[in-house]
Amino acid sequence: MAWDRNQMAARAAKELxxxxxxNLGIGIPTLVSNYIPEGMTVTLQSENGMLGMGxxxxxGEEDADLINAGKQTITELPHSAxxxxxxxxxxxxxxxxxxxxxxxxxxxxxxxxxNWMIPGKLVKGMGGAMDLVAGVGRVIVVMDHANKxxxxxxxxxxTLPLTGKGVVDLIISNLGVLEVVxxxxxxxxxxxxxxxxxxRAATLAKIVN
Length: 209
What we know:
Elements: H1 5-13, E1 21-24, E2 43-46, E3 50-53, E4 76-82, H2 85-93, E5 99-102, E6 106-108, E7 113-114, H3 129-135, E8 138-143, E9 154-155, E10 170-173, E11 176-181, E12 184-190, H4 196-201, E13 207-208
Parallel strand pairs: 1-2, 1-5, 5-8, 6-9, 8-10, 12-13
Antiparallel strand pairs: 2-3, 3-4, 6-7, 10-11, 11-12
């Protein structure tokens, strides 16, 4: 047993607070928009120039002109605002975004993040990840605990090119929730049906009590 993609996104949504401006990364983080608690006002920002994103559209109601940074169709809200990329990154670099929820290829026990490229594989560019981890107040990573080869993605040190050093505050994986603290990672919560021994065995990074 472990959390699926939607359960990870729902758990990440519990970290949101009323009035926050939040950026959601590509992949599982985009699902967080579907789990914002009712009555809570959270304004979602997209690097491609949108503030106030709504949830994903229902099938048949997509608008090809409304997309997020991952080129997925989204919906707008009555208060949605549109602007150019320069304004968007001024918000990020200026510390106006409270939280970023991102995917990752690797995270280290000191909060280093690698989420933009695998050497030898063609990538279109880093996108906004480097700016986000440097400019937002809090960074949460949502990802599978292991890669497709079954190897841990929670490591003593990242082996892939870094997006940022010491930038991750919280890791939410399919096995549980780990907080980056002094000296390593602290177990905050276990996923449904996952034991502490299973989480520890799947984690190469140092876990502190």
